Amino acid sequence: MMFHRSTALLLVSGFVISTACAQSADKIINAPAAEEIIRVLAADEMKGRKVFTPEIDKAADYIAAQFKEAGLQPGSGNTYLQSFSMVSPKQESLTAIIDGQTVDAKKVLVLTSTADLTVSDQSGYEQRTIAAGDELFEGVMGAATAEKNLIVWVDESFANTFPRLSFLKRTLFKSDKSVIFVLGKKANSFSFVAKHSVEEKKLANVVGILPGKKHKDQYVIFSGHYDHIGISTREAINGDSIFNGANDDAAGITAVILLARYYKALGNNDRTIIFAAFTAEEVGGYGSQYFSKQFHPDKVMAMFNIEMIGTESKWGRNSAYITGYEKSDMGKILQSNLTGTGFTFHPDPYPDQQLFYRSDNATLARLGVPAHTISTAKMEDEPNYHKVTDHVETLDMENMAKIINSIALSARSIVSGKDTPSRVKEK
Q1: What is the C-alpha separation between 162 and 128, in angstroms, rounded?
Q2: How far apart are alpha carbons 373 and 98 in whole angstroms?
Q3: DSSP state of 381
Q4: For residues 361 and 358, what is the distance between their CA atoms, to the nearest angstrom?
Q5: Which of 175, 196, 209, 255 could form a disulfide with 404 if both were Cys (CB 3.0 to 4.6 A apart)?
Q6: How many C-beta atoms surround the C-beta of residue 50 within 10 A?
């Protein structure tokens, strides 16, 4: 194929610019820099960064200090900590009667901040159905975050999965709204009586801002979650009982901190960049839900949520996947910006696991924002996932730095305002 001379010059110019950007990124985003951060977050002293522990507060303070050192503005007034209240309801009793028959309480999941809750078919609750073949987690999370009084009837084809939803009731936003999930067909009459002891607790995201040069009210978000699951209550493995969470998701927070350093040093972002470290992902994604409510979705141009990038993807090194790839053209934009780098973004190879609606991108995605999670986790075989063996030593730091570099380079046209990804269509 022959090129006109002008076309060739443009290609050479583009290559030079791309190479220069890559070299600039390498000075800030590299394996030693990444390892220094992740070793702090995944240290034994952090005791697994479980919510409502002194150690997660320690992790938050460390991230806030990194944002300040990077030169970001605080995200909440004069502080980097975005605090909010949660409740931990402990169910003491539950009686469920459906169409005149007493139903096993295991088939009913009550999400409430109310100590004594009585709901019947006369209570005026809106009713929804999650039918066979629907995306269960999408429907469940959509209902759990709707801020409405709801009864949700879940098809019995999800009987094996339904017990896993119990994680949702461990921690809830303080609210006067309640949601009741029922495994079974929609009924004509029903009555639920639930009693709980309710304890209020505090949590905090960590948020830093890099104001845009031209489009201050257009936002691009880089995020990850900094909480993990704490210390094992079971038998220790070789004397180790700490879920360090190096890959899940100290790796993502490491990326967010390095991207903050990179874009601050670059200093040419026309759109405002928001860097966020979310809490409470492991207990229901509450940090990202609270964070998302602080923004009008129309002003969020894109969200890069980063989760578990410390190991090779199923395609090997220099690759990652994007959840919900087909739901917007964001992935195509990112890949176009990586032409010539040898790095490849792939569509999510695990659509049956509904990862798009199971991570911290989900709340904004449901509102139409091109909000996607970038990951390399091999969901069919990630040997250290949610295990005490999730240590820094199990990660490929060179490859991880390459992934973060590629995110930085691939996002540049969105950060500059040149490209705007298409919106995720609401169902």
Answers
A1: 16
A2: 40
A3: -
A4: 8
A5: 255
A6: 18
